[in-house]
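Lab channel / #folding
Pinned by the channel admin:
"Please post every new chain as: sequence first, then the structure tokens as a reply. Keep commentary short and put observations after the output so the thread stays searchable."

First post following the new format, from NK:
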Amino acid sequence: MKVAFFVFFPRTLWSPGGGETQLIKTKEALEKRGVEVELFNPWSRRKDYDLFHVFGSTYEVSSFVSTLKSLGVPVVVSAIAYSTKPTWQWKALALLDRLAPVPTVYGLRASIYKNADVVVAGSASEAHQLQSFFGVRREKIKIVPHGVDADYFAKADKTLFVSRYGLENFVLQVSRVSRAKGQVRLIRALKGTGLRLVFIGPLDPGDPEGTQEFLRLAQANSDWVTYLGPVDYGDPLLASAYKAAKVHTLPSLAEFPGLVNLEALAAGTAVVSGRYPPLYDLLGERVYYCDPFSERSIRKAVLDAYERGPKPGAVEFVRKELTWDRVGERLEAIYREVVG
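Reply from TO:
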């Protein structure tokens, strides 16, 4: 089977994160199962694939999906579309789309789901929104939870990180640096606790004000805050950092579900996160939850996790159930169903 992966120009191209990791690791998992996967180059104009898998469902890919549909090429779309907007806003957008004399962003997104042969959701929460907000038929939706390199992070050695930086048993945050990810709130929340704080990740070029605020605050608290910049996913130093940390914290405003949460748990590190429905669908009460808008809540959750360690069964669950091999197995079954 020959499959083409397609992703529209992402705003995170120069500050990659979980979405990019998801695509690459999915490709590797499928190739292990004998599926031939290519990253589609639009300049090639090729269409001799058994199936196209489109990652993301922003309105910009609507014409691409409709063109594939008109060519008779099967299309699977990973929605990657969990929303924090209230339901009334989606109802208003749907009404506006029906009344507007021109195409709307809502209408273009709805057309993506209509033209796709299968829509892949990462969680039950996302599947519910696709049904409620866009009227996607339940039988068209397949739920494929996110995966993690469980063995890789489980077998990581903290020695590499500890020997290079002299840091151990600290609080870690691995993510793109921006206001949405909450680094500034985390620094303010932990000030005065005596805990060391380490940040890893690229600066988001789309949020210059937020990144400058973070850099100023990190520098002002450099006696206990360390920013290491970006570390490539394949660099053993990243896995070693997870192992050396005592707690990983992700106080983002929203996540779907935040692959770094899964990576940290696979490494055996306690996790503090906002209670995002896609993450709760995957892990339930296996994570320490905080209100990412509240510095007091972040502080309490981190101190609890630092004292108690990973919640019972959390590490074992991630290492066994949320692997990329499972993702590859589920997607291959979907592809074979689609192509008949």
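NK: The first strand starts at residue 2 and ends at 7.
TO: also worth noting, The radius of gyration is 21 Å.
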